[in-house]
Amino acid sequence: METSSLLELQRHRQRVAHCERGEVTAQKTKHNTLTCRVNQQQINLMMETHYHVPAKVVCQSEPVVSVAGEDVILPCTLRNPVSTVNAVDEVVEWQKHDLSKVVHFYRYRGDYTDDQNPSYRGRTSLFKEEMKNGNISLKLTNVKLTDAGNYTCFVPSLNSPHQKDSVQLIVGAVSRPDVSVVGMDPMVLQCEVKGLIYKPEVTWLDSDGNILPAGTTETQTEGRYTVRGEVTVQKTKHNTFTCRVNQQQINLMMETHYHVPAKVVCQSEPVVSVAGEDVILPCTLRNPVSTVNAVDEVVEWQKHDLSKVVHFYRYRGDYTDDQNPSYRGRTSLFKEEMKNGNISLKLTNVKLTDAGNYTCFVPSLNSPHQKDSVHLIVGAVSRPDVSVVGMDPMVLQCEVKGLIYKPEVTWLDSDGNILPAGTTETQTEGRYTVRGEVTVQKTKHNTFTCRVNQQQINLMMETHYHVPESWWSSWWAGLICFFTLLILVAGVFTLKVLLPWIKGWITRPSEQKREHQMNRTSRVPLTVIEVDTSV
């Protein structure tokens, strides 16, 4: 009976009781303490409950994957359901499950290493500048294979089940993908990575993130994968390509970005010129894919034995303030062709003192390929001189003087055929003089070429000589013979006529002299004789 009365009383109370629930959306405050206040004014009853939003350690739930030799971050945050919590004044302890000593210990706003495991000394740190935002992540440098395992981040002051959390570190014994150039025309890039634990997928991407068609080969040795992927690339805006290697089983993705570098490429063979002429020192700004626009680059030409520059280009113009005076007004770049990578130097009115090594320098490249050199050889010689030394048959002579190196002389006809010729050479004070004679026949164009080649300096000089058509006519040759004979006859006749007169003119003074002497001898001086007639 009593039991039924109690149940009836309870049902009555449930019927008459008024139940209230209040919900609130809270924002971060200074202390993160919220108060729920319930007030019954009729009976002057007020009740309060204070609730402090608890902080907790939250670490990344997914394993962190790294590669031996690299740096890694084990992400952890001190936060509550409302926001992150300032951890600057907290004690933060990082532990590894299989070690007795701590991995890292932070308190009083500093690191303490007295009880730190020796294998981690000098390799761990926290992000102190970010701790005010709740960042209590651990940075581990130069990761080792033995670093793999479970790590716990512990904040003792929380004094709750949420004062610690764990994160797993997986360490692979592999390096980053290695990218190299294995082909030039067209350009082929190869991506290679060794020692993969899990079967990989290799993907190539261009500068815009587009996937490129590529070929992949893989081998497996002692349970480790080696993979190579090759791709043929074309010129892009930035010329940067990415090799991505993904091991899905451990959620590990590795990338290597390869920027096709630009470099200065000058002519490897010496450039040979003659004093007084103009010369071009060829250089190009290019990468393995294509030439590179050099319009906005700084280009500096230097000569190894000079302190001041030979030519200086910047801001799309030439600057002569620091230019060597001997080159002023004689140097220029091909500005219209610089957009195609042409950074060659044109040097006018070449002097003997211009000979030497020149360097083209592009500072912005900031690599060993930012400069290259070209050698200029200057010879003090003239072009071969061709003259006619015989008419029947026609004989041409080629002569050139002052050659530095021993030459080869070749005669060619209008069609480029080599003609048999005789050559003589002399050497005086280390300089060669060479003469080459050739007997030529009439051809279609009657143009003959004397070619002088100095192989040691890769210098070839040519003179083209055209024989007029009229010189080949028979009447012309006969006329020449007639006039030659006429000159000879006239000479003989002149000698016969003038010889007696010349002889007389020579002997006449002698006869006059002899006659004068005889006259002087026959003359007798007069003697006056006085006779005395007085007797």
From TrEMBL:
It is found in: Membrane. PANTHER family: BUTYROPHILIN, ICOS LIGAND. One of its GO terms (biological process) is regulation of T cell activation. Residues 54-170, 185-253, 261-377, 392-460 form the Ig-like domain. InterPro entries: BTN3A2-like_Ig-C, Ig-like_dom, Ig-like_dom_sf, Ig-like_fold, Ig_sub, Ig_sub2, Ig_V-set, IgSF_BTN/MOG. Keywords: Disulfide bond, Glycoprotein, Immunoglobulin domain, Membrane, Signal, Transmembrane, Transmembrane helix. It comes from Umbra pygmaea. This is Ig-like domain-containing protein. One of its GO terms (cellular component) is membrane. The keyword Transmembrane applies. Pfam families: C2-set_3, V-set. The chain crosses the membrane at residues 475-499.
